[in-house]
Design goal:
This protein is of the alpha/beta class and 340 residues long. It has ten helices and twelve strands. A twelve-stranded mixed β-sheet has the order 3-4-2-1-5-12-11-6-7-10-8-9, sandwiched between helices. Strand 8, helix 8 and strand 9 form a beta-alpha-beta unit. Helix 7 packs parallel to helix 8. The protein is globular and about 60 Å long.
């Protein structure tokens, strides 16, 4: 795939996501919109050619998927190269009708994309939405992309980060029930999240000394132990350790006021939230169509749109590509920053 990449245009591997979801649609819409701009990154889709081709015919947007064979280095102008990793039957290709076959195929697309990024054959991996339920039904016991990518990349620690135009945050715990969060909050877990977020802000986003705001866990950040002791036992010591390591971290911040903006600005460059909804309610309220999911701690760049498969609208042509475009652009920027 040497012909697809050059120093000025990073090559991004894009896993197609669940064939029955909106992944194929938002990929094609994004490719069409980005093709209008000079300097757009080169994309190669890992997925099912028939799904991509049928979706392109429904959309009528002027982007033509073409199979990229091993002996090819390019597919021509106006075409979107596809590494055809599956040949799904008509039942497994129906929009809005997920299947075990589709769930298994979407898993294999991600694995192939991760291996490309790990081998340096792609500069980053962008993942379209998958269904955790259909991964599980297909026998793949990973809660989501991040856990699978950490496994493939042999990452000792990884975290999920979300980046919008105005708000950036990382999560200490992710896909666990609220009743389980307290026992999963440990000093190392909180400290690792602060460290990984700080590293990303410095090395990828070029913020020289990022201010990291760390949220508390309990109402009013525990009110000095009245409403809980996680702040005293876990979060405050983790912040202190981060500061000793030279990171400008502060808190614990009361969760109900942490996201108030003074004169349109947050008090931090990025934030650490203790659990999923604590951070994502604020993020999705503010950045719903623009937020990007970024995996921290793995040995390659990975982004994804911050939405799911949307089986209910798949095939209708109504999917908004804004978050996928943002994910592609974020991956391209961070890939370019790494090269520099």
């Amino acid at each position: 795939m040497k012909g697809l990449r050059d120093k000025a245009h990073p090559l991004l591997a894009v896993s197609m996501g669940d064939p029955a979801g909106i992944g194929p649609e938002v990929i094609l819409k994004s490719a069409a919109r980005l093709a209008r701009h000079r300097g757009a990154p080169a994309l190669v889709v890992i997925g099912d050619f028939s799904v991509m081709s049928e979706t392109a015919r429904r959309l009528h947007i002027g982007i033509e998927p073409r199979v990229l064979r091993q002996d090819q280095s390019a597919v021509g102008r106006g075409a979107l190269p596809v590494i055809a990793l599956s040949e799904l039957n008509a039942r497994a290709r129906r929009p809005g009708k997920p299947t075990v076959e589709g769930g298994d195929a979407s898993y294999r697309y991600v694995v192939a994309g991760a291996k490309m990024a790990l081998a340096g054959a792609a500069d980053a991996l962008v993942t379209a939405p998958i269904s955790k339920q259909w991964w599980d039904r297909a026998g793949h016991r990973f809660p989501g992309h991040s856990e699978l990518l950490a496994h493939l990349g042999h990452a000792r620690r990884c975290r999920m980060m979300f980046a919008g135009e105005r708000l950036k945050l990382a999560l200490v715990t992710v896909h666990v029930g609220l009743a389980s969060v307290a026992r999963r909050l440990t000093r190392p877990a909180v400290l690792d999240t602060i460290v990984l977020l700080g590293e990303h802000m410095r090395t990828r986003l070029k913020v020289a000394r990022p201010r990291i705001g760390v949220l508390g866990f309990n109402p009013h950040a525990g009110e000095n132990g009245i409403f809980g002791t996680e702040e005293i036992r876990v979060i405050e010591p983790a912040i202190a350790a981060a500061r000793r390591a030279g990171i400008d971290a502060f808190g614990p911040l009361a969760p109900d006021t942490a996201f108030i903006r003074s004169e349109g600005r947050f008090a931090f460059d990025a934030a650490v939230a203790m659990y999923h909804d604590q951070g994502l309610i604020a993020l999705k309220t503010l950045e719903f169509d623009r937020a990007v999911n970024v995996t921290l701690g793995i040995p390659f760049i990975r982004t994804s749109p911050d939405h799911g498969t949307a089986f209910d609208i798949a095939g209708a042509g109504a999917a908004n590509p804004s978050s996928m475009i943002a994910a592609i652009e974020y991956a391209a920027r961070t890939a370019a920053a790494r090269e520099k």
